[in-house]
Amino acid sequence: MAQEGKAPDAQGFIDGLTGRVAPLSKALALNYWEATATGNDALYAKQGELELELRRVFAEKEGFETARALKADASITDPLLRRQIELIHLAYLENQMDPVLLERMVSLSNAIEARFNTHRALFEGKRVSDNLLAEVLKSERNVGRRKAAWEASKTVGEAVSSDLIALVKLRNEAARQLGFRNYYEMRMTLNEQDPAEIARLFDELARVTESPFLKIKARVDAAVQKRFKVKPKAIRPHHYQDFFFQEVQEVGEVDMDAHLADKDVRKMVEAFYNGIGLPVTEMLDRSDLTERDGKYQHAYCIDIDRMGDVRTMCSLKNNRYWLETLMHELGHGVYSMNIDAGLPWFLREDAHTFITEAVAELFGALPTNPVWLKSSVGLPAQVVDGWAPDLALEKKMGLLIFCRWSLVMVHFERALYENPDGNLNALWWDLVEKYQKVRRPDKRNKPDWAAKIHLTSSPVYYHNYMLGNLYASQLLHHMASTVAGHPDINTLDFAGDSRLGKFLRDQVFAPGKTLRWDALVERSTGKPLDPAFFASDVAMP
User: Fold this and answer.
1) Are 225 and 370 in the same domain?
2) Residue 233, exposed/middle/buried by CB under 10 A (0-12, 13-18, 19+)?
């Protein structure tokens, strides 16, 4: 702690802290990469140890007092210095809890995540991957087999639910130690978000999307009735085409997989990003793109060292799902790779998690753009032009379905931390019926909510996906009008247009965390975050 009457040396404090934290952060990222690539239990155990080692740095009382003193020092006016101090103070604040409690939280969280990543559901007498179950829900016509696959996808929830509730209680206890009402409130505040403002925003989204969602849902259910010869009241979750009714459902004639089977998804995506001046070849060469037993079954992008070592973990197949997924994950990747390398270490991150999600969503949505499918994927014009009406519908459907799904997640997670001993199984399906209009399964009382890995691995995060959609809409409208001079966002073709890549690099990526998210949104689009752009994109006639 600084001597009484003498202000601490801000730059010296930050430099010393960076020297301790940066290597630990890199070791943590590398170990997570290896753990998820292999499913090795020892590496998952080590992940918890490394995370604790990093968090113990920010748990130190002396460092916290120094950070607090620097934050209160009005003589520090340099904006980059002040911004680092703000972020460092938040990092210290988060970790000012009982070290035994912190260790229990980290250990339990990593144990649950390891169980998620290595879980293989029992289906038709065999242990199978999520990819196989997803394929059954996508293409199987036998309703009994679909139902069995859907139920199998939820067995991981039964395996982790009791431990997840215990983890929620530990997180709440930690939050109360720091003066917060619960962990939900704490995470919002530490991420520079106002819980009341987020709640208000999602209430507004529920209101403005209710009518267009009902129109989209009616189309989906009409297709389900026709496909499975069922009456409306008989439709249940296993009739839909993904585990949580959070993705686009096929209602038209768009069978993109048939046209992608003989193409190379990696090469197409690589050529696209390279062509707009955001090179990804080195990142892909460092990545792990092949499916195998024990490997993490989902996808993520990770910045290993904030020095350019960015990678993605995927299990690529030449189909639409993985085309969209790789486009999404490399959106995260080009953001990380194009943050100004000259910034201090604590500022070499995205402005906010929802800002990088917006970029990922922006690129991940391009496979619904007919012009892009012809120019970047090379699909026949005659085929794509025939798909155009259905693709336009799918884009709106994707935004609306995900918005309503995110309403379930946001309301459930808030309630989970407010009362982890409540009837969570019933609450989950109450919210699904209210916001997604999906009837609950008959006579089922299982912890289906716990099958969503984000409740464990990314707590109080899901609302950022939806905020990302709001910013993506606003950003796309701005780029179309002011950068590309293109009046129709639905046919704006990024392919080969380095102006769009340069705009993103200069106005969104390069500043890193030098600005708060709200300032970054206004800098890059000329106005504060405004849901009106999203509402216009999902309007239905």
Assistant:
1) yes
2) exposed
Q: Average pLDDT of 479-495? A: 90
Tell me how far apart the alpha carbons of residues 38 and 13 are, in angstroms, rounded to a whole number. Answer: 38
Return all residues near 277 (Cβ < 8 A) that are at least 6 apart.
498, 501, 502, 505
What tokens does 159 get? 């395996």
Q: What is the pLDDT of residue 7?
A: 59
- Ramachandran category for residue 218: left, alpha or beta (phi over 0 → left; psi -120 to 50 → alpha): alpha
DSSP-derived secondary structure for 123-152: ETTEEE-HHHHHHHHHH---HHHHHHHHHH
Q: Is residue 85 located within the same domain as residue 119? A: yes
Q: How many CB atoms lie within 10 A of CB 4?
A: 5
What's the first-to-final CA gap in the chain, in angstroms? 64
- In the DSSP assignment, the letter for residue 261 is T
How many domains does the chain fold into? 2
* Average pLDDT estimate for 250-275: 92
Q: What is the 3-state secondary structure (H, E, C) of 281-295?
A: HHHHHHCECCCCCCC
Is residue 82 a contact partner of residue 516, using CB atoms and an 8 Å limit?
no
Cα 360 from Cα 395, distance rounded (Å): 15
Name the β-bridge partners of 127: 122
Let me know whether 181 and 208 are in one domain. no
This prediction's pTM: 0.86
Residues 14 and 114 in one domain: yes
DSSP state, residue 309: -
- Identify the residue whose tokens are 């910045």: 303
Give, in order, the Cα–Cα distances in Å from 318 to each of 259, 321, 391. Answer: 9, 8, 19
Q: Quote the distance between the C-alpha of residue 280 and its chain's center.
A: 20
Find the length of the chain: 541
CA atoms of 391 and 248, how far apart (whole Å): 10
What was the pLDDT predicted at 32?
Answer: 96
